[in-house]
User: Fold this.
Amino acid sequence: MLQLLKGSNTDRLLLLAALLAITFSWFVIQAQISAGPAMAEIYHGQILLATYPLPQAGEAEQRFEVEGELGETVVVLDQQGARIASSPCSTQHCVLSGAHRHAGDIIACVPNRILISIRGKSASGYDAIVE
Amino acid sequence: MMIPRPPLAELEGKAQWLALLLLAIGLHMFEAAMPSLGPWFKPGLANLVTLLVLVMMGPRAAIAVAIGRVVVGSFFIGTLFTPTFVISMAGGLAAAFIMIAAWRYIPGISLIGISLLGALAHMLAQFVTVESLFIQQGVLYYALPPLLLLSCITGWINGALARYISARLTHDI
Assistant:
């Protein structure tokens, strides 16, 4: 079985190069976006519609109704993170992808051209239990 | 007037190509229906068929399968000419072209390396398509590195599977 997964030397070299490039870009991206408090950015196509901090424990949830290409996408920001609660698209991938709270996470509804991007340190419930 | 009967070998080749196209369409639909690991990620089994066709029948047949399976597969899923279709087509074609280039020009590469490059090209092309056509935001690329890591894994495994299958198929025929 393991013999089956054995590539040639060229294959391994390519894998190594790919892994190095991916890891490097991952570090660069994380360094850029994990500064500051956790924020959700909501975009429609090229336009930044709103930047809003993710609610901390005890804070009320926020609901945004965002007008996209097909209709209204409802974005909810709560302690779980940001999620799309409803969308007019047929695939519903964006709704099914659930809540996201880590820097670099994105939720995209391509048919409706809505994008939610998370940046900043995620103030997760787990971080708050340190005491 | 008698229409000359095509040679049997040619008919067999066409039947084999068609069988692989149908397999690719089936896998395309299966992947669309299966519970996804995320909206951006699929195991790439349909691309495995493109790779098999490439090594068994050459570049033109491989590109025809890549286009054919996206068009027919999307027709059955109900996403024909939607953004999902455009993204699938860009990914499938990019993977096919990169795999052809790797197969032709990189010495010492096996099906595993070709599949690895194909999987990476597929993921990159999808993001570039979304960024240039639908959501013109650079922040989209922030989600790319973890997905490319997954692509490395699936690309490698699919390559190993393709090597196993093609060895069996060419042995039997």
In short: The longest helix of chain B spans residues 144-172. DSSP finds six helices and no strands in chain B.
